[in-house]
Design a protein that fits this description.
alpha/beta; Spore Coat Polysaccharide Biosynthesis Protein SpsA, Chain A; nine-stranded mixed β-sheet; 13 strands; 25% strand; globular
Amino acid sequence: MVKKCLFPAAGYGTRFLPATKATPKEMLPVLTKPLIQYGVEEALEANLKTMAIITGRGKRAIEDHFDISYELEHQIKDTSKEHLLREIRSLISQCTFSYTRQVEMKGLGHAILTGETLIGNEPFAVILADDLCTYKGDNVLKQMIEVYEKYQCSIVAIEEIPKEETHKYGVIAGHLVDNTDDTYRVTDMVEKPSPEDAPSNMAIIGRYILTPDIFEILKETKPGKGGEIQITDALLEQAKQGKVIAYRFKGKRFDCGSVDGFVEATNYFYNKTKG
């Protein structure tokens, strides 16, 4: 069973400077809720209750957010504003949060490897809070867990993107399995290829389910694109053994790591509350 969810949250968020100079990008709010809270809620809805968060310098606000503020609770108790903390109180009571620091920024693969002490020897999910997903019915992570239960190997979420945007993503090649139109056995993965070198237009987004052998593979993975340890390179080693499934999820993703995507998400959720 998948019981734990890892949140890499040590990045600097340079695309949002100066807002992220002293505020973690994961704490930027879409309406009144920070990005990382949307991710934790998604994990909890998928019945994952252990949240492992990789932080760095200047990220204490994340820990404080998932903790009780007694002064604030006292101030708003029995007022019209008390209900505003209901959602975060519920998360705090239902989930266990643990933290470790990524001392050096060496890429997503390195961030995931840093989480080994929090995860242990078991399969686990990964959510990148930058990718905010909305859905009808089962959320994206819950869909992926169903796929994992069937194939018992690493799962990556994918979506089709314009060919000219492949340089922003890890891109997969693969073949459909089990007469589905949304599940692929991965045969190749390339990190941020140019459009002419991309094996497809199917890009990996910020949702993974990983088997624990990924940690040993990451320990042997050399720095790749940008001099960073890429999770794509480690997953490729699993894919060579037929042990990676790519799942084209049902739902909509907002790239909140970009200003355009962040504004789009804000407008979408605002209009949703008015609808």
